[in-house]
Amino acid sequence: MKILVPVKRVVDYNIKPRVKADGSGVETAGVKMSMNPFDEIAVEEAVRLREKGAASEVVVVSIGVQQAQDTLRTAMAMGADRAILVLTDESPEPLAVAKVLKTLVEKEGPSLVVLGKQAIDDDMNATGQMLAGLLGWGQGTFASKVDVVDGRVNVSREIDGGTEQVSLALPAIITADLRLNEPRYASLPNIMKAKKKPLETIPAADLGVDMTPRLTVVSVAEPAERKAGIKVGSATELVEKLRNEAKVI
Amino acid sequence: MTALVLLDHEGGQIRKAALSAVTAATRLGDVHVLVAGDAALAQAASQIAGVSKVLHAADARYAHELAEPLAALLVSLAGSYDHIVAAAGATGKNVLPRAAALLDVQPIPDVVSIVDAQTFVRPIYAGNALATVRSSDAKKVLTVRSASFDAAPAEGGSAQVEVVAAVDSPDVSRFEAVQLSDSARPDLESARVVVSGGRGMGSEEKFHALDPLADVLGAAVGASRAAVDSGFVPNELQVGQTGKIVAPELYMAFGISGAIQHLAGMKDSRVIVAVNKDPEAPIFQVADYGIVGDLFEVVPQLVEELKK
């Protein structure tokens, strides 16, 4: 069984994003970029499934600029077997990404596609669900536990009031939540090995997918800053302030 | 124009967040709602103020709001609607993007403000930026943040209920079980006061130090990702970028350092209180009132004071 894991290159999660002065977006030039943290969890889960013998091959794919190769190499250093880069200068929306991934799924024939539940740049939380819809596959979103058993995949999902279990026929889509696993660090020998693993580049235009954006960004702005308030010396003073100044209790 | 709101439910109740989605939809036109489950839910939906029609998906396949059948049903109903809306909770985020893909629409998640019928404001980068986006799709599919829209009154409406027939969808998923926390406390997303703990709580046992304070304030209990990852509390209590987004009147953070991922979930609260041993903790930069000190000493003192 083959597993496909899409990964996205995003602004590193430790960097505080800065809105561009012209309000056209968030500054990414000269900013440290890394693999989307949720995608690291997805890669880890796929690699673990292969290590357990539930899968035979893990293929990672990224859609983006040449530098997304670094993200793919990181995924291969974590244990993915090979990589595909769909090359484009655009930053496609989840609908376009899902359409591109669908063409790759049709070509590669995976039994499972594991994605991060959301990317920490656009916070869309949509690609996995959209790919599942386009393929007519079952979807186990916000997964905190995944078991492949007898041609099905059982998924524990984090929901608003607790946890839910669903069982999906294979092939299926999984989207990884924070607590699915703790991704490993790539060791130096594995980073070296990853440089020799196959990485295929496909120009996005060759896939024949309409990637025209549906959303126009009118503006991007900084949210209203919250000002630091005051420090109080005691619980008594705090309760007095909350009662008489903030009038909130 | 007419909007269709998917009303999600949990434990036999329509979620309060869904009532906020109704309010958002009233800004877009006439409001119809779709509710999947038993007749009591449809009855409750018909009472919501501002709803003019209830579509009741009574077939058993919809009872657990599984994405595969429910998205197919939404697609079959979508023809008459300009907007399809849901609360940005676990159900809305699971079902709506799937329906959007089937409709060839790019969804707009986590809307915090409606500019006009095509134009919406949504946070990106964990709320560090607000993007205003205009959709060119014929239909708009959006999820809305409950913290940004008041809940529609649950009473006062008298909408007609119409049962909708089931439609075919791929039989690829099966509901197995659900574990809901049986807390007697108010719902985290709609509580007036939230008392939250972080890594500084120390352990699952010590996290309960917040219980007496939550009791005296009638507050919901929340947590930072660090506290959830450490196993102090279950995942449904997480406040932050990938957890619950809350905006109560009063948010009290104990032993929470204030990572941007956490601030993304609570910085729109009206009044923020922080108690932390570390005077440099970033949480103090957004707190209206701070106490530098040991939370295990401060919390009992607060309880005593509040009882006076």
Automatic annotation (TrEMBL), chain A:
PROSITE patterns reported for this sequence: ETF_BETA, SIGMA54_INTERACT_4
Q: Where is the Sigma-54 factor interaction domain?
A: 58-227
Q: Which organism is it from?
A: Acetobacter lovaniensis
- Domain of life, per UniProt, equals Bacteria
User: What GO molecular function annotations does the UniProt record carry, in alphabetical order?
Assistant: ATP binding; electron transfer activity
Q: What is this protein called?
A: Electron transfer flavoprotein subunit beta
Q: Which InterPro entries match?
A: ET-Flavoprotein_bsu_CS (IPR000049), ETF_a/b_N (IPR014730), ETF_b (IPR012255), ETF_beta_N (IPR033948), Rossmann-like_a/b/a_fold (IPR014729), Sigma_54_int (IPR002078)
The alphabetical list of record keywords is: Electron transport, Transport
Automatic annotation (TrEMBL), chain B:
Q: Which UniProt keywords apply?
A: Electron transport, FAD, Flavoprotein, Transport
Q: Does the keyword Electron transport apply?
A: yes
CDD domains per the UniProt record, alphabetical: ETF_alpha
Q: Does the keyword Ubl conjugation apply?
A: no
Molecular function terms from GO: electron transfer activity; flavin adenine dinucleotide binding
Q: Which domain of life is it from?
A: Bacteria
Which cofactors does this gene product need?
FAD
How, per the record, is the cofactor bound? Binds 1 FAD per dimer.
Tell me the Gene Ontology biological-process terms attached to this UniProt entry: fatty acid beta-oxidation using acyl-CoA dehydrogenase
Q: Where does FAD bind?
A: 199, 224-225, 238-242, 255-262, 276
Q: For the Electron transfer flavoprotein alpha/beta-subunit N-terminal domain, which residue ranges apply?
A: 3-179
PROSITE patterns the UniProt entry points to: ETF_ALPHA
Q: What is this protein for, i.e. what is its function?
A: The electron transfer flavoprotein serves as a specific electron acceptor for other dehydrogenases. It transfers the electrons to the main respiratory chain via ETF-ubiquinone oxidoreductase (ETF dehydrogenase).
The family assignment reads: Belongs to the ETF alpha-subunit/FixB family.
Q: What is this protein called?
A: Electron transfer flavoprotein subunit alpha
Organism annotation: Acetobacter lovaniensis
